[in-house]
Design brief:
homodimer, 207 residues, mainly alpha, 10 helices, 0% strand, elongated, DNA-binding
DNA sequence: TACATTTTCGACCGACAGTCAAGTATTTTT
DNA sequence: AAAAATACTTGACTGTCGGTCGAAAATGTA
């Protein structure tokens, strides 16, 4: 079946990316790892980038599934936002399957980071938009444009994860996260400390 | 003299980039335009990217010079921040020499955008840091960490300029700029409307 | 079996960043 | 002024890699 072969190929890329950055993996290598010829790769995908898209989209879909599996434990919008964030950055999911998103953000690879950001916005911001709207109904937060706010939040966090984490000193990173948590609070007019989970989680996982 | 030849080469690249995106310009082409052999390019630069760095750094230095030439007309920190921002995004400088920064942000080129962001942070955030500190002394704004705040502001604006402008609809862009101006106001605790110049300027120049 | 369609494959192509050896020009040394 | 050393110039060449292509094998269909 056509889907199976496609899966074979992006599974191979995913495995390779656990140890080698995308930019250093050739299509030839992906093909060999998948046990098919290079030509077949191009039979199932239009470009090398399209294979990567599949890997990243699946990672986000896994994180999102993890989120929906746990969301009922939180009833407030803020609690759910926290849950969503946790699902995205936690190191692994239940079955000890590691969360690629975290790993990939540590790679040194422009194309990859750009895709991570684009796909994060595409996959996460609709969910966050709904949560912001829920928060407005609850009265726990306020924003004029939930859709745009959600996109901004996801974009900025994504940029944070790649650019800031890898190259800068811990203290600077923590200061920036504090600023960002503060920005969210004041802008969404939530109660003080609502977004402290941001730097708590990141400190625990990364720093 | 060694500096002259280097200049010859990145001048050539700059001219080419007015019409062709960096990623579509080969080192061979740069060499031809500069009137030297390809080997010479690699005698004066270690890599193709290093030539680009020079072009972008010079663009920012020009914008910064423009800023310092005009800064005395504004005495308040907020006025100067506005001036700095204007200098960076204005379409051209006095002698009708166009501002490359604006042009380059419209290119569709990952590597280029990444460099623009990196060099913007490197060149602009020290200046903005000083202005934030001045604002704190004046009492016109408040921030716990001026250095980190400055970096965040420059980074976010830079991401805005590439990602948002090119791909999205006007209304969405304007909403995001409003949010961002609002974020700055609430976070720096400035008076209402202090950053309206952001979307005024951008609307005038781009949208 | 005969024919059509789908899938597989790796040799090949073109593009391009970067290297290198062999030269030429310029400066320094004697 | 000659010789030696150094600085600069060059384009053919290399290696790599994303993507193409056409021929063949596998599968489906009658």
């Amino acid at each position: 079946m056509k889907q199976d072969k496609r899966k074979l190929i992006y599974d191979a890329l995913e495995k390779l990316m656990l140890t080698v950055p995308f930019k250093d993996i050739s299509v030839e290598t992906i093909a060999r790892k998948a046990g098919v010829g290079k030509g077949s790769v191009y039979y199932y995908f239009d470009s090398k980038d399209e294979i990567l898209d599949n890997v990243i989209e699946r990672s986000y879909r896994r994180a999102i599934r993890e989120y929906f599996d746990n969301v009922q434990s939180e009833s407030t919008a803020l609690g759910r936002i926290k849950q969503l964030f946790r699902s995205v950055i936690k190191k692994d999911f239940g079955s000890s399957r590691q969360n690629l998103i975290v790993t990939l953000h540590l790679h040194d690879d422009l194309v990859l980071h750009n895709k991570l950001k684009a796909i994060a916005v595409q996959e996460l911001s609709p969910i966050l938009t709904v949560l912001l709207e829920q928060g407005m109904e609850e009265g726990s937060l306020k924003t004029e444009y939930p859709k745009e706010s959600a996109e901004i939040i996801v974009t900025v966090l994504s940029v944070f994860l790649d650019n800031t984490m890898t190259t800068q000193e811990k203290t600077s990173v923590m200061k920036k996260l504090k600023i960002f948590a503060n920005v969210l609070e004041t802008c969404l007019k939530t109660s003080k400390g609502s977004f402290d989970f941001l730097f708590d989680s990141i400190e625990a996982e990364y720093v």
